[in-house]
């Protein structure tokens, strides 16, 4: 401890630069992760942040909400599967709506989800206001509150010829409930049905896109989903997580970001490991002397690893600070800050840095104290 | 071979020590049946040309190397068959070293280079307060009190060797081993350092072995032992007192 910290105090610039470099790299990792999460949330936040444990798709839709409808016979059959406590319709559609602020409403696209008010499928991230309690009320995505989707604003579905205007009043705001990067509303199923009929007055029936299922207490959603798929012909039931991960585009976005992240995860520990290897070579004489006067090799190794921990943690604090500033600043970028990924990243970087520092540890363990009598340092090779 | 009558608890007793380096079928005998006893408070100069085996012998006495044959007893402790881990502890607690070139940790101040000895001993060593007091006393005695906060790079060659002497004495060792302590210094500074070594060892009654190839330095020792091709012999001509 004494040796490690004294050396760092005496070589502030050297260790400071390394901590800075680690900090910037960890910041980039956090930023990339947040950007990825933010983008994915914009695509499928509505699926991730709703209350159904399982979503039952039409099998032919291939996990695509837009292309899925659940037939009445299937709806009834889903409710009969063991482990299903409740199964209610959940509709989704993209509509042209009139929304805006200060009386300057303009046409824009919005996604409307309709769920049974007392059933699964309700948004779970309400940050302001309340959930809808009657037809004509809706919860909107908080990200779009300033674009005519704030509490008290009205959103009008633009009807096609022959259709009736449908108006929703925003009564609550929920975080990360966007779908397809559009303003998103959660309303009751009847409201959704009315919106569908507004744009398609000739529709004989409005079918739900998926069935929202709440599983019985103690039941495993994954097992229940598998049971539904097996029992109800023509359906594919997915847990909430499976539905999110399987959404078209999400896996492609994840894969692209993963490649970049993997590179960063390799670079940070390599930089750290290489730095400490070089430092170990540079101070070989001092380490040899310390071994000669009776320092156990373990003490020198612990000193080295302590320095790795201090550098990575200092860098991580810097990274989190920068990340916090970036998330505040925004700059139009969609950054999502979540403590779990931050902690995971810092821990992973630390573990990888310790692993790559094993090369330096090996050098320390190879020091022969007799070299103090010859002036030689660490043996090479 | 060289011997002096001394009690069994003598600071250093080497009995028929042999060190052989093997390379394939060939053998190089670095030290050949060396027997040497250093009495309490005695300063012995180990004189020999380059490659004569003097540093090897010193390293065996200090637990840096193990002998191939023979017996090594330091401060009453038989270290002949000790494991590397036990020898590390022995070096930390029983002997002091002053080396030829690399002698100080560059990122520690003069005072910290002494305190590191206590740090290496961990909880079994002296308290931090006592260690600081001890370091201060030693640096004052060595005339380096005003240089306590200086890094080695800010010290002259002579000052660096004096700090190294302080470090070697820090744990009140039974024996201090000097490996060519003046070879990197000019004659005048070298003599000052030797005089300091002599005074410090005498005032404490600490035994010392000083390896040197410089006959001008041997008069600081109580006795000179010559080593040639690994074989020890008394050198009455070189022995003397200042």
Automatic annotation (TrEMBL), chain A:
Task: Supply the alphabetized keyword list.
Answer: Cell membrane, Membrane, Transmembrane, Transmembrane helix, Transport
Question: Pfam families given for it?
Answer: FtsX (PF02687)
Q: Does the keyword rRNA processing apply?
A: no
Transmembrane intervals: 257-279, 299-326, 342-361
State where the protein is found.
Answer: Cell membrane
Give the membrane topology.
Answer: Multi-pass membrane protein
Keyword Cell membrane part of the UniProt annotation? yes
Q: What is its main location?
A: membrane
Enumerate the spans annotated as ABC3 transporter permease C-terminal domain.
259-369
Please report the name of this protein according to its UniProt entry. Answer: Unannotated protein
Automatic annotation (TrEMBL), chain B:
Q: Show the Pfam families listed in the entry.
A: ABC_tran
Which controlled-vocabulary keywords does the entry list?
ATP-binding, Nucleotide-binding, Transport
- Where does the UniProt annotation place the signal sequence? none
Q: Reply yes or no: does the keyword ATP-binding apply.
A: yes
Write down the SMART domains for this protein, in alphabetical order. Answer: AAA
- Name the InterPro entries on file: AAA+_ATPase, ABC_transporter-like_ATP-bd, ABC_transporter-like_CS, ABC_transpr_LolD-like, MacB-like_ATP-bd, P-loop_NTPase
What are this entry's molecular-function GO terms? ATP binding; ATP hydrolysis activity; transmembrane transporter activity
Entry annotated with the keyword Aminoacyl-tRNA synthetase: no
Q: ABC transporter domain spans which residues? A: 12-242
- Cellular component terms per the entry's GO annotation: membrane protein complex; plasma membrane
CDD domains with a match to the protein in the record = ABC_MJ0796_LolCDE_FtsE
Please report the name of this protein according to its UniProt entry.
Unannotated protein
Question: What species is given as this protein's source?
Answer: freshwater metagenome
Taxonomic placement: unclassified sequences, metagenomes, ecological metagenomes
